[in-house]
Amino acid sequence: MTDVILYAWARPLMQTSTPVVSNLDHTWVTNFPEKVDPDHQTDPPKGWTPPESYWYCWGSPHDVASQALGDAAASLSTANNITPYNVTAMPSGDKQYSPSSTSGAIVYYGLDGVCHNVANGILCATGTATTEPLRVQQAKGYPLSTFFFGTYGLNIAMWEKIRQKYVPGIKLPGDDFLSFMNQYVPADQQAELLIIRGTARIAIAGLRKKVAGKDFDFYPELSIIAAAALYGAKKLLGDNVFHQLFPSLDIDDTTWLRPVV
Questions:
Q1: How confident is the model at residue 24 (pLDDT cuts 50, 70, 90)?
Q2: Residue 250's closest CA among 138, 103, 144, 104?
Q3: Of residues 248, 257, 243, 231, the one with CA closest to residue 22
Q4: Which of 56, 105, 120, 219 has the fewest CB neighbours in a 10 Å radius?
Q5: With contact defined as beta carbons under 8 Å apart, do 66 and 36 qualify?
Q6: For residues 126 and 6, is the Cβ–Cβ distance under 8 A?
Q7: For residues 50 and 86, is the Cβ–Cβ distance under 8 A?
Q8: Beta bridge partner(s), residue 10
Q9: Could you tell me the residue ranges of all domains in the chain?
């Protein structure tokens, strides 16, 4: 049963001093329409709280978006079961590397996935047996996030439990990164690119096992894994194809792994 409209939103990450971060979007979901200002990057007035259901997606509340990414009918209770609304991602403190119990299958930001994956998970509530759910495909940096994390993140076992429990009959999309790859990457380079991607994802999974249940900053090691994969991809594809595939990325800067949203 559908009883609300879910809206997907984007705005640039706040660390605009670095080229890569200034070209990546934070995404979130609401059940109410936001204002849209393409140049807006400021925070909401002090004390502002969302008027209705707001999914933070590992970010802070924003009262104005830079881009609307789409909307579709959904069940509010289903979306809330996938990921609870009006709850911040870090109940145990302000450490971004702390595990979250309120972001669906994206428990560790940067290891399980990022805000794009959280938003996609919530938006599964918009899917039907014949229609794929809404996703944040137009967000800046989406080809990059899906290169590492796919459509719904790398915490696959947990995501499958959530999906099968709350949205078992919807028409699921495939791996969105493959669509970008097929659009821009020559066929004779695709297999090697997927090897580079797979190697990075194995390394991220290994790091995930290393940090689970521990309290330390894993981003330096994660940055090394990401940089190695992206440099490998750039070497394989060449500058032109690489920047067509990842138009938001400055290859010399990996600070996108630690955004302020």
A1: confident
A2: 144
A3: 248
A4: 219
A5: yes
A6: yes
A7: yes
A8: 27, 67
A9: 4-257
